[in-house]
Amino acid sequence: MKKVSKLYYVLTYIFFLYPPFIWGIVSIYSSSITRSDHIITLILNLILLLALALGIALAIYLDKIHVPSKIEQKYLLFGLIGNILMYFYTFQNALELSNLITVYLLLILVLGVHSLLISRSIKPLELWILLPLFIVIDYIHLAITGCGWTDYNCSSVGEGGQTVALILYLVMIFSIFVYYIKQLIQYQLLDILKLLHLLMGITVVVLFQNIQNLSTNTERFLMTLLIALAFLLIVDFIISIVNKTYTHKMTLFYIRTLTLIGLGIMIGTMELFTDPRPQKEILAIMVAVTYISLSINILKTLLNVKVTDTLKFRPTSYTQKYRLTEELISDIHQVTLLKDDVEVGLYGYEIRDIPMQDKTQVNILSFDLPNDNTDQDYMLDKMISELTKKGDSILFESIKFDPTLDTLLIYKGFVMIFHQKTHLVSYILET
pTM here? Predict the structure, then answer.
């Protein structure tokens, strides 16, 4: 695969950035922000896309870059759809669509297009669970109160509407807390310091539910707890780094706990339980959680954090059903083996042009084999059958010697090569 192939993937995600950044330039040179800014931005956006298309066509004609492959074409289409969605999101106020084009709807559409075109899987599951719920709550709240997150004042709401609004708030809060607590349990990181952190956090949340009527001494105690929370968090990180027990799960753990504490503080300051009434400010909770959950899932990918789903909302089926999903990360095709929608194996391959025994195309792989023997056999069989269609040879590079893996791969037809200097093993399959 040529190095310049990365150009198409870079362009895919740059497409998302065009509308807000073009609007920023337009607003600088406009005497004032007007309703025509979105039209000027649209025209400039289309001109830029057309110029890029002509530039790519010329580069292909001059043999400077290659014609995009099918997967690259799908990524480019994904970027163009994202460009359209970001345009409407950027100008939701100017187009008077602020109550329709919400961040929840935008993200669920982006995830849906990505799933259909590229990943063929429902990931990240957290956003697929929370975003549809937030969309429904947001639209029902708009219907019964007449105001959304970006509106200034709610209209008068009848008694029935007030009851529905309060039920919506409770459903939203309960769902967020249950899901975040479920994730915290799955991190399996609880120790004395983290338990103290959680207990102090719970105390802070409880005290904030009646913040307006606290005595001076109780307020001082509350402020002391907040300082202690920050101090304890820093101490826990220092100890884990010194003892070399730190894992990236710990960062995600504290992001989630601090989010729950912050939500508890927001609920208290809004007096939801002491003076329950419809108020659009509570919708800020859904906006905040959307961005936090999105950031957590981006961090999980960047930090390569894997969380075993030890708690499930539904029982696992006894019928074993296998499914493969593929996602392109830079030049690496990451393929996940799912059994009953649970991840059991993972491998990545890269098609690289390197001479090897008069062959010019090689699939270079790395993988994590499942623990179960049946899953291992299934994954290797599927891997080999898929990759023999994509290249001439398959090469597992620099794998630490493992007798079980050695036996399994040799049985599948691989030849083992032992490297004397590095004491690492490569496995080659000629196809």
Answer: 0.69
